[in-house]
Amino acid sequence: MFKTSLTTLLFVVFLSAAIHGATATQAQSAAKPSAKPNPKLMVAAGQETFNKNCLACHALVAGQVGFGPNLNGELKKPHPRKTPAEAKTIIKEGKNKMPAWGTKLSESEIDNVIAYLKTV
Ligand code: HEC
């Protein structure tokens, strides 16, 4: 049996997601298009998608430094630094060294990530 540390595992998952265009390991969207979105499921699915695709560059623990800006409190009330719409544009289109996710994640996956970011 291999002993694989969680860090190594996360790194491998991130790498394989990057190499395969993040299509193979995407989280399922929380809600069927016809069903009413369930906020708790959206946050849970968004956390999974964030951990797989974003955590490598964006820390969520206050004070932690990463390749991209720390997103702790980014969308959290009462003093968010960006509106959800602003964040969504950056996530979909990318910005400078931030890769674009508009073709790699579905609309509902991005909405779920935004729902999760509102909680951190
Ligand atoms: C390869 C590293 C990398 C990955 C992966 C990445 N980002 Fe970024 N992200 C960046 C960088 C760098 C910036 C800063 C862009 C700038 O303003 O020049 C950024 C900016 C942002 C911003 C705006 C932050 C601000 O205050 O200006 C948000 C929101 C964001 N990213 C969300 C995400 C989400 C959600 C994901 C996963 C779907 C993600 N990022 C994946 C590197 C990354």
- CATH hierarchy class name of the domain at 38-120: Mainly Alpha
Cα-atom radius of gyration: 14 Å
Number of strands: 0
CATH superfamily of the domain at 38-120, please? Cytochrome c-like domain
What structural class do you assign from the helix and strand content?
mainly alpha
Shape: globular
Beta-strand percent range: under 5%
Tally of helical runs? 4
Q: How helix-rich are the residues, as a percent range?
A: 40-55%
Q: What do the pLDDT scores average to? A: 83
The small-molecule ligands in this entry are: heme C
CATH fold type of the domain at 38-120: Cytochrome Bc1 Complex, Chain D, domain 2
Order of helices and strands: HHHH
The biggest sheet, with number of strands, parallel, antiparallel or mixed sense and barrel status, is:
none
Reconstruct the topology from this structure.
Elements: H1 6-19, H2 39-53, H3 84-93, H4 107-117
Helix pairs in contact: 2-4
Heme C is lined by residues 53-54, 56-58, 67-69, 71, 74, 81-82, 87, 90-91, 95-99, 101, 113.
